[in-house]
Specification:
One of its GO terms (molecular function) is ATP binding. 40% of the residues lie in helices and 25% in strands. It has 257 residues and is of the alpha/beta class. It folds into two domains: 169 residues, Rossmann fold (3-Layer(aba) Sandwich), CATH 3.40.50; 66 residues, no CATH class. Helix 4 runs parallel beside helix 6 and helix 5 packs across helix 6. The structure holds adenosine-5'-triphosphate (ATP). Adenosine-5'-triphosphate binds next to helix 2.
Length: 257
Amino acid sequence: MNKTEERVKTPVICFDNVSKSYGDKQVLGQFHLSVRKGEFLTVIGPSGCGKTTMLKMINGLTEPDSGSVWVRGVDVAHTDKIALRRDIGYVIQYVGLFPHMTVRQNIAYVPTLLNKKNKQRTARAVEHLVSCMELDAGLLERYPSELSGGQQQRVGIARALAAGADILLLDEPLGAVDGVTRRKLQEELRRLHKELGITAVFITHDFHEALTLGTRVVVMNEGTIVQDGAPKEIVEKPGSAFVSSLVEQMKAGYKFG
Ligand SMILES: Nc1ncnc2c1ncn2[C@@H]1O[C@H](COP(=O)(O)OP(=O)(O)OP(=O)(O)O)[C@@H](O)[C@H]1O
């Protein structure tokens, strides 16, 4: 394989026959998934079907009972988890910003750890991300509690990108923001994905969001993938009654959760 073929064909994230149970309940069963570099994978499915469990296996927050998860060609089970997490952006619904740190300090947190000596470089990176996320520079010295939900979410995304991560995991990042802000943030995410060429795995309860943001959509139910394809394919050729009903519900304006 030449370099380009290798980049396209080697998955950045790979689940190989992964299973996970909590007590008697199987949450993931013989789960297989490969995500290639630069894909924007959206994941949708009913509450409790295993989406978050799957996502947290990518950054080692949850471990499989059997099977393995590979990130950039390395088995997560045999990786330094702290280094892995620094290297993968992670955005969750209620942001998880450090409340005692300003916006600037929150965004600069990982770059400061990685880049202690070069404060100017970190400052430039923070300012660049703030402008990318269309955050007013005047907010940099505020604390998270002094921001709106949408602003906090922008800071959360900027913080996740600040370490220069090429993989971004997003667990319903826009679930708690209002409709107008949500659409703006969807636009920002789409633009950032294009500009930075990052690989994103994005969980949502909103099928319309999954279809508009994803370059590829995975539909899950009860711990397995029931359909995996391009957004158009999912809508035009739903592979089961379950996916058909999702498409119908979306047309009728219904959202999971
Ligand atoms: N640490 C845990 N201990 C016990 N059960 C858990 C744990 N984490 C998740 N579960 C259970 O595993 C199942 C899958 O949870 P998970 O969070 O992966 O689902 P999800 O598809 O992300 O759901 P939602 O859309 O509601 O966030 C659920 O039944 C949940 O209660």
